[in-house]
């Protein structure tokens, strides 16, 4: 199990941390952490857990250690009776098995908002081991359904924007990261960060699949035999960009935003 919290990317300039930076060492000795969470369960929601498994592969390729990656997913897809290829999860047609090596940090009903917030805050009462420190880089990625002001969890109630916002502010006040980047794929996901929910002075950069009033969209829904969608549009946009990038080929968050926005 990964300890405490979380991320990942190497700061380029200002808030510009590139996915390419995944392959660079942190210059200040900070640790890169990732917290990856799928908020759904059920075969019809195959795509969210596929997204999260894919994100795990990107973190690994970027050099993060398992002890610094926390994966929260219900884990009912790989061996779901409806899955035509047992033990395999793909995130695009004919794609690689992204389930390979995915750690079982939090599965089933342990995927809930209380555990998510505890992991985010590195609460030692809820976890073993140390949390993140002031030089650390943290990446948080969420994929699932949402509505104005909240995103879903497979159990234990929804995660509300106020609670996430307060957790980020508390974590900043605790000096528990240098930079934190959070990506959220969900309908109306912009509502998780708008206005005072995300102050500009806490070192957090958020990118969402949609604004506060629009849907986010599934993709890769026509693959024969699957009868479900394999990915989400925003998620595969940032992840396939990361897949295509070579080590030492950095990109700022702003550049990535432009690429993802255009494709999505
Ligand atoms: C949110 O997205 C919708 C649909 O694309 C668009 O019509 C609307 O103007 C956007 N709202 C803002 C505040 O940008």
Automatic annotation (TrEMBL):
Keyword Hydrolase in annotation: yes
InterPro entries assigned: Peptidase_C13 (IPR001096)
Active-site residues, as the UniProt record annotates them: 145, 187
Gene Ontology cellular-component terms listed: vacuole
Entry's Gene Ontology molecular function annotations: cysteine-type endopeptidase activity
Signal peptide from the UniProt entry: 1-16
One Pfam match: Peptidase_C13
GO terms for biological process, alphabetical: proteolysis involved in protein catabolic process; vacuolar protein processing
Key words of the record: Hydrolase, Protease, Signal, Thiol protease
Catalytic activity: Hydrolysis of proteins and small molecule substrates at -Asn-|-Xaa- bonds
EC identifiers of the protein: 3.4.22.34
Transmembrane segments: none
Family note: Belongs to the peptidase C13 family.
Protein name: legumain
Organism: Oryza sativa subsp. indica
